[in-house]
């Protein structure tokens, strides 16, 4: 398992904004999960009109081959296959009149579908 922290790393495999970390930690706490061990899993799966889509879920602990990063107290788990597609991405949380939710800003994307739910690299 590869482990990095936001502090002191030259470039983390992914980045999480303070707003996204705060929201995810709040959700983890509301689920009664131990934030010292549990975390947010960010992954890529087949699907959507552009071919790939993002997925997120809470896991109680990382898998052995996960890259684990820590941002603002939030542990983030990414499996090696997903890292190929989302390395260098930023996870943000938007809360406004037009949209509310998590958003992945991925520099590897060549095209996205019209609704922004799926992508192609």
TrEMBL record:
<dbReference type="Pfam" id="PF01521">
    <property type="entry name" value="Fe-S_biosyn"/>
</dbReference>
<feature type="domain" description="Core">
    <location>
        <begin position="14"/>
        <end position="117"/>
    </location>
</feature>
<dbReference type="GO" id="GO:0051539">
    <property type="term" value="F:4 iron, 4 sulfur cluster binding"/>
</dbReference>
<protein>
    <submittedName>
        <fullName>Iron-sulfur cluster assembly protein</fullName>
    </submittedName>
</protein>
<dbReference type="InterPro" id="IPR016092">
    <property type="entry name" value="ATAP"/>
</dbReference>
<dbReference type="GO" id="GO:0051537">
    <property type="term" value="F:2 iron, 2 sulfur cluster binding"/>
</dbReference>
<dbReference type="InterPro" id="IPR000361">
    <property type="entry name" value="ATAP_core_dom"/>
</dbReference>
<dbReference type="InterPro" id="IPR035903">
    <property type="entry name" value="HesB-like_dom_sf"/>
</dbReference>
<dbReference type="InterPro" id="IPR017870">
    <property type="entry name" value="FeS_cluster_insertion_CS"/>
</dbReference>
<dbReference type="GO" id="GO:0005506">
    <property type="term" value="F:iron ion binding"/>
</dbReference>
<dbReference type="GO" id="GO:0016226">
    <property type="term" value="P:iron-sulfur cluster assembly"/>
</dbReference>
């Amino acid at each position: 398992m590869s482990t990095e922290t936001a502090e002191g790393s030259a470039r983390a495999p992914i980045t999480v904004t303070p707003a996204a970390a705060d929201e995810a930690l709040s959700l983890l706490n509301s689920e009664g999960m131990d934030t010292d061990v549990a975390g947010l899993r960010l992954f890529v799966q087949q699907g959507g009109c552009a071919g790939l889509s993002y997925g997120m879920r809470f896991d109680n602990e990382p898998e052995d081959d996960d890259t684990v990063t820590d941002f603002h107290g939030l542990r983030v788990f990414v499996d090696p296959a997903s890292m190929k597609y989302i390395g260098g991405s930023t996870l943000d949380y938007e809360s406004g009149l037009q949209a509310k939710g998590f958003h992945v800003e991925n520099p590897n994307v060549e095209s996205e579908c019209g609704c922004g739910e799926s992508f192609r690299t």
